[in-house]
């Protein structure tokens, strides 16, 4: 939605600028050194998020949020109400492991700057992280107790999912082994059937031979008896 790379500090500045904000008071509003506050103001102005107007009575320069700045701020508020996703969990994990400033988070994750800003803002608004501004371009983040609990719950859920997947894989392996064993039994059964058929065929052949022998013996006996009666 936004092509300009907005930083977390710029978004936080929009949350702190009110009707009484002025250039002269901006460093105290942001709790920054004057030089860093001036750089941040210049960045906000260059990206069209703020504009300046003069206050006639005090001769001060008033800071006004532009329509573009208001739209971006409203969009950030809307995004911060969304559910926690995998990128949010990854941010919390990296902050916990020591990659806890905006610039290094951007480098390690290699994501668009505005996306990182919106997700960190969401985590801050939901109470999972706190921040401290380092300078015009960087901030440091720490986990709150809620953020720590969220991280541990996420790790626990990941462990459960891995265990379920491991058990599923083992079950699938067992099914393959059972199938192979069944195939082996079927092959063995077929082999036994073939052997039995061959044996029965052999028995059948033997029975046929026995019939022939008996027939021959009977014929021979008849011939012998005929000859004996002839000589009598």
Per the CATH scheme, the topology name of one domain is Arc Repressor Mutant, subunit A
Molecular shape: rod-shaped
- In the sheet with the most strands, the strands line up as 1-2
Please give the radius of gyration in angstroms.
Answer: 45 Å
State the fourth-level CATH superfamily of one domain.
Answer: Winged helix-like DNA-binding domain superfamily/Winged helix DNA-binding domain
Instruction: Specify the helix fraction band.
Output: 55-70%
Largest sheet: 2 strands, antiparallel
- Total of helices: 8
| Overall average pLDDT | 83
Order of helices and strands: HHHEEHHHHEEH
- How much strand? 5-15%
Uncertain ranges: none
CATH architecture descriptor text of one domain: Orthogonal Bundle
- Number of strand segments: 4
Would you tell me the structural class of the helices and strands?
mainly alpha
Q: End-to-end distance, in Å?
A: 131 Å
The top-level CATH class of one domain is Mainly Alpha
Topology (elements, then pairings):
Layout: H1 8-16, H2 26-30, H3 34-46, E1 50-55, E2 60-65, H4 67-79, H5 86-96, H6 102-109, H7 113-125, E3 129-133, E4 139-143, H8 145-231
Antiparallel strand pairs: 1-2, 3-4
Helix pairs in contact: 5-8
């Amino acid at each position: 939605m936004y092509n300009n790379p907005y930083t977390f500090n710029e978004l936080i500045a929009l949350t702190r600028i009110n009707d009484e904000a002025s250039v002269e008071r901006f460093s105290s509003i942001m709790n920054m050194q004057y030089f860093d506050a001036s750089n941040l103001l210049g960045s906000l102005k260059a990206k069209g998020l703020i504009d300046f107007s003069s206050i006639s009575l005090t001769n001060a320069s008033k800071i006004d949020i532009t329509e573009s700045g208001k739209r971006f701020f409203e969009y950030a508020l809307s995004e911060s109400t969304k559910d926690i996703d995998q990128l949010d969990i990854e941010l919390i994990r990296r902050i916990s492991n020591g990659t806890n400033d905006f610039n290094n988070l951007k480098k390690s994750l290699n994501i668009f700057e505005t996306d990182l800003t919106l997700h960190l803002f969401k985590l801050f608004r939901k109470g999972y992280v706190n921040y401290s501004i380092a300078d015009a371009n960087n901030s440091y983040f720490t986990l709150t107790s809620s953020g720590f609990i969220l991280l541990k719950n996420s790790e626990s859920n990941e462990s459960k999912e891995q265990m379920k997947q491991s058990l599923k894989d083992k079950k699938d392996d067992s099914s393959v082994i059972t199938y192979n064993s069944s195939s082996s039994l079927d092959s063995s059964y077929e082999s036994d059937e073939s052997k039995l058929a061959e044996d029965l065929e052999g028995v059948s052949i033997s029975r046929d031979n026995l019939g022939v022998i008996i027939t021959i013996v009977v014929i021979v006996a008849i011939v012998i008896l005929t000859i004996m009666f002839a000589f009598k």
